[in-house]
Amino acid sequence: MPRTSRPMGASAGRNMIARHRVAVMLPDGPAVHAALVGIERAGLVAVGIGARAGAAEVAHLVRRTGAALLICHDMLRDRDAEALIAEIVSLGAPRPELLILPDLIMDRDWNNGPHPAHLPLLAPDPDALFLINSTSGTTGMPKCVMHTQNRWFYFSKLAAEAGRFATDERFMGAIPAPFGFGLWTAHFSPTIQGCPTILLPRFDAGTALDLIERERVTVLCCVSTQFIMLLNEQAERPRDLSSLRSMFTGGEAVPYRRAAEFEEVTGAAVLQFYGSNETGGLSRTTASDSRDRRLTTAGRIIPEMEVRLLEPATGAETAGRGQPACKGPATCLGYWDDDAANAKLFTPDGWMLMGDIVEVDEDEYLRVVGRTSEFIIRGGKNLSAPAIEAEVATHPGVALCAAIAAPDPVFGERVCIYVTPRPDHAPTLADITAHLAARGVTREWFPEYLVTMDDLPRSSGGKIAKGELAEDAKRRWTVPA
Questions:
Q1: pLDDT on residue 115
Q2: pTM of the entire structure?
Q3: To 10 degrees, what angle do helices 30-41 and 8-15 make?
Q4: What is the phi/psi pair of residue 10, to 5°?
């Protein structure tokens, strides 16, 4: 199908039906936010796809959501848009119509002339589905999370209270917009506050620091990996970061020593929410908390989120320690077209579950003490170990494999695969990553370390002893303090 450059309003009004899905695959920057607003005003539902997504992931999201239109640039990193479309169709996705954003911008003078003809725009409904984005899953492909605007309006209110936002704030959002953290930090909060936001098409620590200094950024939003990279860059070439007042982080455990160093270097309070793309926030730290509370806990339980603790095995309610469940205004609507995943996300009586084990003290402060799911958290992004294993296992030279989190001082964790090769095979890391690339696997799933073993250790039940491998990974890659 030939690509089109029709204006968004005309395309939505003439060829799309209200609440139909429109995929958006754009790098961070003004264009992705404009696209999301335009889709919403046209009464459609955006499907946010990360700009780094592999072809297999794009095909899955287009197929699952039924997106009939894909908004993107002519080139997607190193891929031509038409070539990507051909590849996802070969993987079983329906062929979406292409809307190339540079053409859309340049085809007309937006300051003069008549507006494109379109049907009347629908009245906005902040409780209606407006966005579907993806989250990590254990079945090999992401699940599709359904968002309303009201959940992010509420979340932004929580952030404003936590950071004591003033009327002159200047935001920098370092997380891509299609994802939850990027939504509230760059799409909602600055708009609600009426404040400017500084965006990076691709995170670079030096560029980010230069912009913080030049634009006098007051609120920085980034994952732990990014602020560690900022600290390392600042040590090499110091900038004036005195404008910073607060830094929101999350997505992984906050490293106390580096977070305290960030506060000392910048004077900004390091703050975080505990939650997920699905639940929003269950707890938060605030500028009123002591440093010990801010950096050793995930903050105080948010009353409106009605957090309760459950026994993971039985689902019975418990106190002090357990698996958190919640009901409240920050939660999503659930997963799009995925009854099996929704059955795991919700309890039978409708409470939304997190995949962690937490402790809550007498003052209602929450600490994460373990995970019930097998995720490797690299740079704040949850990577499913079983999903990575399933892809690596398709390599013809791999007999058995396990994906394990290798500790890393910058990214928190990196992907390490332990492999038992097939007879007469000796796959290298380069062989395996090339194989994954040929399969269209998202680059973030590529392993960064490879350990080959004649046989992987087993538990008494015959399963791979992942705890033993995790200890081996710690011995191999832990950097002495």
A1: 65
A2: 0.82
A3: 30
A4: -65, -45
